[in-house]
Design goal:
By secondary structure, this protein is α+β, with helices and mostly antiparallel strands. It has one domain (13-457): Outer membrane efflux proteins (OEP), CATH 1.20.1600.10. Helix content is 66%, strand content 8%. It has 11 helices and 4 strands. The chain has helices spanning 2-5, 10-29, 39-55, 73-83, 85-105, 138-204, 210-244, 269-279, 281-301, 335-404, 410-446, and strands spanning 111-119, 121-133, 308-315, 322-329. It has a 4-stranded antiparallel sheet, with helices on one face. The chain is elongated, with a radius of gyration of 38 Å. The chain starts with a helix and ends in a 31-residue tail after the last helix.
Length: 477
């Protein structure tokens, strides 16, 4: 009879089983819950969605523009943005930073607990749930920190896009002006061939010696070597152009566009710095760092507030069921640790503010330097087009006539030819410098200064800050 009295009634056993099932179901299905996004998180996700629609729709690479000789500069820039691995890496860094906002504002996962008391036999079975409750506003402030950091990653992504665009423009202009240099030298080589024929004719009638013919041939050999060197340098520029488009070593060489496009910059000199300070992506990224540091200070101060844990357990073996509520409170007693966290956050803020001020100063210097180079290149082009080149062509014609008349020697004739060639090459270099500086100014205004300023025209006398000096002109000038 005693054993029969210890048998648990069926309805009580059913209640306990149902209670255990309910706790187990809660532990399984609670992870399917969703938190409430903060305003900063919603904005970050909206920005990411807008970028993704253009850059990686459906998390797949967007359709690339066709590269052929009719490709526009805009098509080349779009191709590089969509295909450049550095841009892709920056994009996914930004996407990961946006996801961290959700992680930062989310509550800690609840815990399913299970406890048994055993004395020869199982005397109690206590499943339960335990959840941590951070101090109010800790999660919100943490989300603000993560949101500001994701904003900084967004501007970093935009900066990489602009750097990629600059590399395309730089190599695009260099290839075009290399072709222009080769064309000018080939025209001059043709001119030297005509001068050689002129010297031979004069030699045949005894007006000059064979030395004039030899001088013309020497000039032609020198110029052919220069053309060969320029042709050889094309392979290096083509490799840079290919890399700027994000193409690998095994990809075919892209065709060079047959039509040249100049960079447009519809801003006055007075508006350049003002626009750069308002639009520069690098400055905006540093401003986001300052905001993240400010939020980190608030979060560090809240470390002095305790966090809580609440739970509930039920002994399903006892009759009646034993309910056991649980609660814990963290004790933030290590004040030196909290003070160090606050001091670290404040130091990070001051560091970010100093970097922002430094970038603003450097930006003003970069704008001033590039503005000067642009004005200088524009003046040099005007000087060459309006005065030096017309006079050099006139000087060559006068020298040719004087040579036929025996009024000047062949040395002066070839020197005049070299003067004209030099001015033609100066025009190509000044135009190249002007285009590269325009591209740099566009990059500075929107993003950040390039690593190698004005490197398209480094070998030019004008790119080293030297004005165009009038060359020696003969033949009656």
């Amino acid at each position: 009879m005693g054993e029969i009295e210890n048998i648990e009634p069926a309805h009580l056993r059913f209640q306990r089983i149902m209670a255990l099932a309910a706790l187990t179901a809660a532990a399984i299905f609670l992870p399917g819950c969703k938190g409430i996004p903060t305003q900063g998180e919603r904005q970050s996700r909206a920005d990411l969605k807008a970028v993704t629609q253009d850059y990686r729709p459906g998390d797949r690479k967007a359709a690339l523009p066709t590269l052929d000789t009719n490709a526009t500069l805009s098509a080349l820039l779009t191709y590089a943005m969509l295909n450049q691995p550095r841009v892709e890496a920056a994009y996914y860094d930004y996407a990961a930073a946006v996801e961290r906002v959700t992680t930062a504002r989310s509550w800690p996962d609840p815990q399913f607990t299970f406890q048994m008391d055993i004395q020869n036999v199982v005397t109690s079975i206590m499943p339960g749930l335990m959840g941590s409750i951070p101090w109010p506003d800790k999660l919100r402030v943490g989300a603000e920190v993560a949101s500001a950091e994701s904003r900084g990653k967004y501007f970093a992504f935009q900066s990489v896009v602009l750097e990629s665009a600059f590399e395309v423009k730089r190599t695009y202009y260099q290839l075009y002006f290399l072709a222009e240099k080769i064309r000018v030298n080939q025209e001059t080589l043709q001119l030297l061939g005509e001068l050689e024929k002129l010297a031979r004719a004069q030699n045949e009638v005894g007006k000059v010696t064979l030395q004039d013919v030899l001088r013309a041939q020497i000039e032609q050999v020198r110029l052919r070597t220069e053309i060969a060197n320029l042709e050889d340098s094309r392979s290096s520029l083509l490799a840079q152009f290919k890399a700027a488009l994000g193409l690998g070593a095994n990809d075919p060489m892209p065709p060079i566009p047959g039509r040249f496009e100049s960079t447009s910059l519809d801003l006055t000199a007075e508006k350049l710095l003002e626009t750069a300070l308002a639009q520069n992506q690098r400055l905006k990224a540093l401003e986001a760092e300052v905001r993240a540091a400010e939020a980190s200070i608030i979060l560090a101060r809240k470390a002095a507030r305790p966090d809580f844990s609440l739970g509930f357990m039920a002994d399903v073996k006892m009759n009646p069921t034993l309910n056991r509520p649980l609660g814990t409170v963290s004790l933030p007693i290590w004040r030196d640790k909290i003070a160090a966290q606050i001091a670290e956050a404040q130091a990070n803020k001051r560091s970010a503010q100093a970097r922002l001020s430094d970038e603003q100063i450097a930006l003003a210097v970069d704008v001033a330097e590039r503005s000067f180079l642009y004005r200088q290149a524009t003046r040099n082009l005007a000087l060459l087009n309006d005065q030096l080149l017309p006079k050099a062509r006139q000087s060559l014609e006068v020298a040719r006539s004087a040579y036929l008349a025996g009024q000047t020697d062949f040395f002066n004739l070839t020197d005049t030819e070299r003067t004209l060639l030099g001015f033609k090459l100066d025009k190509v270099e000044a135009t190249a410098q002007r285009e590269i500086v325009l591209a740099e100014l566009s990059l500075i205004i929107q993003g950040m200064p390039p690593a190698n300023p004005s490197n398209a025209a480094e070998t030019s006398s004008m790119s080293r800050g030297k004005p165009v000096a009038p060359r020696k002109m003969n033949g009656g000038m």
